[in-house]
Each structure stands twice: as C-alpha cells, then as structure tokens.
Amino acid sequence: xxxxxxxxxxxxxxxxxxxxxxxxxxxxxxxxxxxxxxxxxxxxxxxxxxxxxxxxxxxxxxxxxxxxxxxxxxxxxxxxxxxxxxxxxxxxxxxxxxxxxxxxxxx
Length: 107
Fold this sequence. Notes:
The chain has one domain: ATPase, V1 complex, subunit F (Rossmann fold), CATH 3.40.50.10580. It is globular, with a radius of gyration of 14 Å. By secondary structure, the protein is an alpha/beta fold. It has helices at residues 11-18, 30-41, 52-55, 59-65, 85-98; strands at residues 4-9, 23-26, 45-51, 72-76.
C-alpha cells in the first residue's frame, strides 16, 4: 500500500517537513538524490518531493518516474532562489492533460 511521503534535499530546505510527519532525507548532490529516489521507489512511497535544485539536474530520473504509477516525483522550491523548474513541470503536465494552460493563462 502506497501511503508514505518523503522529501529529499539539503537539510536547511527540508527539515521543516519533519514537523508535519514527512520523512526527510538529506541529499546535496544529484547522485545522492538519484540513489535515494531509486531506494525509496522500491518502498511504500506515494509521493517523493525533491528539492528543485537537485531535480533539474536529474531529468532522466524525473522522466522515468512519469511512466510509473508510484511514487509521484514532485520538484519543490528550496531555501535558495527558485529557478521555476518545478512550476514549469507542473504547467507542462497540466497542459498535456487538459490541452490548455490554466496556470499562467498565456496564449
């Protein structure tokens, strides 16, 4: 049963998630994040939030995750300045699903 949620990223960015019951995994390099994603994907995780700065460096892992039912890999902004990578991915997925940009509403 897929019922767990985890967040992967540097300690400063993900520590607050621990206070709401989310499992926290420290990763500061794309290689560490990739190993954690592979390991956690074999468990009961429904959602893996990944720090945006790491997620944008492992696009092949995100692409593979989109072909799997679980876990959902969601890039999230970190304490560093957001590059917009996570929001762009969400925008792209919504556009693909419904055929219209309802997030930014640009023509």
